[in-house]
Amino acid sequence: MQGKKLDSTPKAYQPRAEKLDVRYLKGVGPKRVELLNRLGINTVEDLLYYLPRRYEDRSNFTLVRDLKIGEYQTVKGKVLTLSGHITKRRISVFQIALGDKTGVIYCVWFNQPFLKKFFKTGQKLIVYGKVEKYGKLQINHPEYEVVKTGTDSVNIGRITPIYSLTQDVSQRYLRFLAHEAIERFLFSANEKLPAYIRARRHLADIRFAIRNIHFPASFGNLDKAYKRIVFEEFFILQLALALKKRDVKTGAPGIRHKLDARLIDSFKKLFPFELTKSQLKAINEIQIDMANPKPMNRLLEGDVGSGKTVVAIYALLLTVQNGYQASIMAPTEILARQHYVNISELLMPLGVNIRFLVSGLKPAKRLEIENEIESGEADVVIGTHALIWQGVKFKKLGLVVVDEQHKFGVTQRHVLRKKGLNPDVLVMTATPIPRTLALTVYGDLDISVIKELPKGRYPISTWCVEEQKRREVYEFIREEVKKGRQAYIVYPRIWSTGQSGLKAAAAMYNKLQTEVFSDLRLGLIHGRMLLKEKNDIMKKFKDKKIDILLSTTVIEVGIDVANASCMVIENAERFGLSQLHQLRGRIGRGDYPSYCVLLGSPGTEAAKKRFYTMSQTQDGFKVAEEDLELRGPGEFFGTKQHGLPELRFGNILRDFEIMEQARTEAFEMVREDPYLRNPRNSFVHDALKKRFAGRLELISVG
Q1: How far apart are CA 325 and CA 377, in angstroms?
Q2: Tens digit of each residue's pLDDT (9 = 90 or more) over 277-336
Q3: Domains of the chain, CATH where assigned
């Protein structure tokens, strides 16, 4: 199939944009196909939906006499002269003098002598660029357009799209292709939103939106086009979440646990402290879910140290009391072992049989535990990814708890859930999720939030310290150790790579042990160690046999040593805001003041803002909001981990109002038409299947 043949084909018989390879567009050859593919443009539809990243207003012409130095402006005039010469440094210079009725400006190109053949005196020309003055008004390498009667420029004299590019693809070329695709194939663009939703939300049709998102006739049209396309993206995403939630609420029945009013009183007596109001509220929400015949599907989020595990233990106890098994899956063996030790101390005296399953076990031991799980002898199984091995079979799995759930992929959680008959699911995270993100990533879950810290906790003082005060920092650590406390020093890497100024845990361990803290007991832990080594080090630290623990971010998740009162984070500018907050959460767990020192030199504005935020608040929800602002939604949370596609167009911060409107419409559609069988929703049904291709194992769309 060749381009010319396509041109002569009646539109009614042309291939649809979504299926037509971009190579069949005019101006696209084999080499350029590869370049376009790098941009994710494989089909004509991909090109139609390849949105500009910004726009330049080139629609208003400025007279030469009114030009402002240093600003990007558009000038329309007549070519007066053309000239060229070679400089002493062998640089080719080509320039034209462009004049209007008020003056002359010079357009200059370097090392592009071939341009001379494109211009001639007397031509009418529109140019756009940054106006400068070198004795005379000048624009270097302007964008240009020769004015021809009856033509509509896509580069000059309008609101002009600016696209993200790859090497060897120019703005002019991409604009040309986008215009070509719109003129020839826009008629075949699929409408994905039903007419009644478009009418209710005052949304433009898709063809208007695509044309005006690329080549807006006005900024008003651009706003309408943007809202329409972003609404569609959010709507399809929220529809998937609504269907997932529907499957839980209307799907096969789960387990209806019987509640015992005496259980909560007995549970409270297990702890030497009073549960917070937030913990009790979360417990109440969980037991209501578990008493319901439909499976629980709940997210428990709370700041580091807020006591989420205590709430989860109540759910374990309620499950076992009703004759079912429970499992806890943690992302690391260190965290899984910590859960195993802490929960065993509480529940084993009550007759609850708790088993520990990780990959490092000897085959005989692993087989023994697997047999206990399959026979039902094991009441609670705590482990890592080993829980989803094919050989692990539960007799009556009634509750799945996933800790630090963002460390797992959606498939892993799904596999564990399938090991029971619609068990209740509780996922936990110590990364507080801003509401804007929660509605996008966790829109299918009910959410419980623990905002209070346990009573008696001291606030953590956070200091930002420059490198020249390193000696004072070391002295402060020594003072804390003298008081009987312990300290962490966290590094961004294990070994030195020769990168200037970047500290490494292994090298600093030797230096500090011999030169600075030779009289104290130091330990070193990092992710490359064998599990037994890591466990031994953590046990020594917990047993107060190590004064200062040097570490990488391996301690970020779940390590709980109440006697540790001090943390120094080296090269703190290298860490993200949420990661700094998670690390800080490893201290402040005892009944004495704690201190976090950010040691480093924040060179960028973003790094300075991270340091400032850390020093001003300990509230994880405020930290999360700020982190989302700094990094943007694409990086804050790996949405791929949740089985959801990345957002291509919308920004959940800037476009939150659009997202809430889309969510309302999506959930209303599923309420009225749970399986999208109504003919008026057929477009949506097809769009959903396409958008979530290969990811619909959790969504049944009828």
Answers
A1: 9
A2: 999 999 999 999 999 988 898 989 888 778 899 999 999 999 999 999 999 999 888 888
A3: 1-59+158-189 (1.10.150), 66-157 (2.40.50.140), 192-251+663-702 (no CATH), 286-450 (3.40.50.300), 460-617 (3.40.50.300)
